[in-house]
Amino acid sequence: MSQTAPASASSAPTTRERLFTGIQPSGASHLGNYLGAQQNYVALQDRYESIYGIVDYHALTTVHDGETLRSLTHEMVLDMLAVGLDPDRCAIVRQSDLPEHAELCWIFDTVVPVSWVERNPTYKAALAEGKENSAGLLNYPVLQAADIVIYKATVVPVGKDQDAHLELSREIVRAFNRRYGEIFPEPRAAYTDAPIVMGTDGTRKMGKSAGNTIPIFAEPDEIRRLVMSMVTDPQRIKRTDPGRPEVCNVCQLHRFFGGDYLQIQDGERTARTGCVETKQLLAERIIEFFRPMREQRLRLAADARVVEETLGAGRDKVRPILDATMAEVRAAVGIGPRREV
Ligand code: ADP
């Protein structure tokens, strides 16, 4: 019998581990997304058989206008290409093109105790921020688990803010496997060396729905404006006051944009430099760092077909993987026609 090559998200047959991660099209890509996750997407796209989801079902928990969501999804594909993902070497997919993600989520919902999702710290934080308390928000990490394991992915490049969600994914896998047999592998995180990036307000994590982001593809003047608005060390009132770089978000971000981070820290600590000049320097460095990607994004956006072609190719690559998993799942849980004996 001839051996069929395993379905692959790259053109060559592969035995590489599989990677999946998702990003919500609920706003523009920001520094937290890039430093915490997107840079790893690019670094890992060859090492693993890589699938990147634009998770529009997830974004429905915060974006409530159809045209806006479609447009944000389009823009997020451009962001993913501009940061360096290559659709010939990975698969970029739109979650809603593969509705089995939602089907598997429902199946997991019948396995997951409500207490597991209620204790999720991200859910609690979202409620504290005043997000609509929908069943979708509560179930968010269950859909996330389905996203990952529907491809039997074992590597998940995410920011450290996703730690609790990934642990929950592993618990869901264990609970499902206990009930129905060993179908899913347990996924693990692949982190960058960035900590959770704080927002311009300095108090909450930078996040699309929090309104505290520095979008990486914003116009240079907008980046300058946002960096200048960042909250720094609240105890440094006067220019001559010594600063505390460890609590200053601007100082922390300098770590990623230039090799002189320790000197910058020292300047703040000794009040040799002021917050304004440290911010101005950061803004210029961010603009320069993302300039080539911004230019590439403009070139890509000029071709109206790029986005849908990318998504179509991604969908075609992953469909066999997902079909195989869902056939196994449906057979195990007992939905669909009786199995042949
Ligand atoms: P957002 O919170 O902005 O909506 P997503 O939920 O779409 O972002 O997350 C996309 C990726 O970016 C995830 O891997 C997430 O861990 C990462 N990420 C988002 N915000 C941050 C942050 N402030 N610091 C580090 N990583 C982040």
Verbal overview:
- The protein has helices at residues 31-44, 56-59, 66-83, 100-109, 114-118, 121-128, 135-149, 163-180, 220-228, 249-254, 261-269, 275-301, 306-333; strands at residues 18-23, 49-54, 91-94, 155-157, 188-190.
- It is mostly helical and 341 residues long.
- The chain folds into two domains: 18-196 and 304-333, HUPs (Rossmann fold, 3-Layer(aba) Sandwich); 220-299, Tyrosyl-Transfer RNA Synthetase (Orthogonal Bundle), CATH 1.10.240.10.
- Helix 8 links the parallel strand 4 (155-157) and strand 5 (188-190).
- Mean pLDDT is 93; it is low at 1-13.
- Adenosine-5'-diphosphate binds at residues 21, 23-24, 26, 32-33, 36-37, 158-159, 161-162, 196-197, 205-208.
Which features does this protein show?
single chain; mainly alpha; Rossmann fold; Tyrosyl-Transfer RNA Synthetase; 3-stranded parallel β-sheet; two-stranded parallel sheet; 13 helices; 5 strands; globular; binds adenosine-5'-diphosphate
Low-confidence stretches: 1-13
What is the radius of gyration computed over CA atoms, rounded to a whole number of angstroms? 22 Å
Termini separation comes to 22 Å
Order of the strands making up the biggest sheet: 1-2-3
Average pLDDT value?
93
CATH homologous superfamily annotation of the largest domain = HUPs
Tell me the number of strands. 5
The first-level CATH class name of the largest domain: Alpha Beta
Number of helices: 13
Number of domains: 2
At the third CATH level, what is the topology name of the largest domain? Rossmann fold
Proportion of beta-strand residues: 5-15%
Helix content: 40-55%
Q: What is the N-to-C order of secondary-structure elements (H for helix, E for strand)?
A: EHEHHEHHHHEHEHHHHH
Largest sheet: 3 strands, parallel
What is the level-2 CATH architecture name of the largest domain? 3-Layer(aba) Sandwich
Note the overall shape. globular
* Alpha-beta content class: mainly alpha
| Chemical compounds bound to the protein | adenosine-5'-diphosphate
